[in-house]
Amino acid sequence: MSLNVVILAAGQGKRMRSDLPKVLHRLAGRPLLDHVLGAAQALEPESICVVYGHGGEVVRDALSASAGDNVSWVSQEPQLGTGHAVMQAVDHLRDDAPTLVLYGDVPLTRLETLQRLIDAAHAANDGMGVLTVVMNDATGYGRIVRDHGKVVRIVEQKDATEAEREIREINTGIMIIPTPKLKSWLGRLGNDNAQQEYYLTDIVALAVSEGVTISTAHPDAEWETLGVNSRAQLAELERIHQREVAERLLEDGVTLADPARIDVRGSLVAGRDCSIDVNCVFDGEVTLGNNVSIGPNCVIKNVTIASGTRIEAFCHMQDAEIGERCRIGPYARLRPAAVLAEGVHIGNFVEVKKSSIGVGSKANHLAYIGDATIGRNVNVGAGTITCNYDGVNKHQTIIEDDAFIGSDTQLVAPVRVGRGATLGAGTTLTRDAPADQLTISRSLQKSVIGWKRPVKINK
Ligand code: UD1
Ligand code: CA
């Protein structure tokens, strides 16, 4: 079915007390408006029109590249109400498709809910549909006024009579309207009300007067329709969203030490029998195989972790690939393009960047491995450093299979360590080390015979 979507995002968001426009504040790592655009795009509409307000160029600049080709941007200046906001979008609305109105600061509406609203309006003769919720405390919202069960109008809190304020069914603001009718109704809106605004909600009474049916649909959960007006509400929605993500992981068979202490800011896909300890943050696309266990306090962004691997506490990893049955951490750092094969061990205070490490190789303590290719069964001793940067360019270090790198070695790249080579502890390797030999650079050790410690002089 074809569809126009209008996203209202011109409100000032004063209560955020922020220089950043409200809809650019982030929930689960993404701007609020990006969530709404995502939900809108999932409906595969013909076009989406975002109505932005004062300072909105920042919003447009932040999101226009990722929003999609079917998104247009119009500014609303000054902001004279939700009806006035939709008026700014009319040139972008195709008459042969209905128009769905969303709010840029309501980020968590589920696709099923929007689809339910669209279907309800479609089933009622392509009429108008409003997403409503029954709330215990409806203060502040527009109320749904019904007569013999039929919606007859929406009245705003500030314009409502005492009796109307008792109504607990509220307008979420999300509605779908036949477009040619919407255009004619918008032209008839006035602002003779408590806020002297052009209320989009007034089109309901106009629709009813023309005999158009108003159907209603409801979300499964109230939080789907909650908006963000303050940082407190933003934090509240973040927790609601994270709780939902955690519930889904639990349902999918992931063990979470505490579902209240995990943050997923992107997508986390896990195989069977994975377990995640407390306070881990997952960002971007993270994929876990089967039987992966992740210790507490890890930050993991765009990483693939294969089956049977254990990540110990306090690891930080980004844009890396980890093979099966590896052991990482505690306190390990994997930077972009770290690629670990099966059975690799990376221990505490080891940093790996743009390097591949072969099957069964180990770097267990205090090392920097950058721009390196390391073969199989290599042992990298404590304190080993690839000196990959000469101040201008980066250079490669190659360590072949079965090499043993003694502790506190510096590999001054470009340099190659041959297969089965051993480097003595403390070596500064500046030329290639041949296979199967011991290479060592170290000044000779001596002991001074008859040397005495200085004696304290008493004054
Ligand atoms: C609106 C509804 C109310 C509903 C409530 C749900 C109207 C008249 N009232 O009230 O029935 O219960 O939402 O939260 O529609 N916006 C613009 N331009 C404007 C004014 C608003 O783009 O000139 C945008 C805001 O950025 C926001 C949305 O429209 O995303 C709603 O605006 P808001 O001021 O929050 O509306 P309410 O008065 O709360
Ligand atoms: Ca509001």
Please outline what is shown here.
This protein is of the alpha/beta class and 459 residues long. Helix content is 18%, strand content 33%. The protein binds uridine-diphosphate-N-acetylglucosamine and calcium ion (CA).
What would you note in describing this structure?
The chain has 459 residues and is of the alpha/beta class. The chain folds into two domains: 4-225, Spore Coat Polysaccharide Biosynthesis Protein SpsA, Chain A; 231-439, UDP N-Acetylglucosamine Acyltransferase, domain 1 (3 Solenoid). It has eight helices and 35 strands. It has a 21-stranded parallel beta sheet that branches. β8 (143-147) and β9 form a beta hairpin. The chain is elongated. It starts with a strand and ends in a 20-residue tail after the last strand. 42% of the residues are buried. Bound molecules: uridine-diphosphate-N-acetylglucosamine and calcium ion. Calcium ion binds next to loops.
Features:
single chain; 459 residues; alpha/beta; Spore Coat Polysaccharide Biosynthesis Protein SpsA, Chain A; UDP N-Acetylglucosamine Acyltransferase, domain 1; 2 domains; 21-stranded parallel sheet; seven-stranded mixed sheet; 8 helices; 35 strands; 18% helix; 33% strand; binds uridine-diphosphate-N-acetylglucosamine; binds calcium ion
* Count of strand segments: 35
Number of domains: 2
**Shape annotation:** elongated
CATH topology of the largest domain: Spore Coat Polysaccharide Biosynthesis Protein SpsA, Chain A
Structural class: alpha/beta
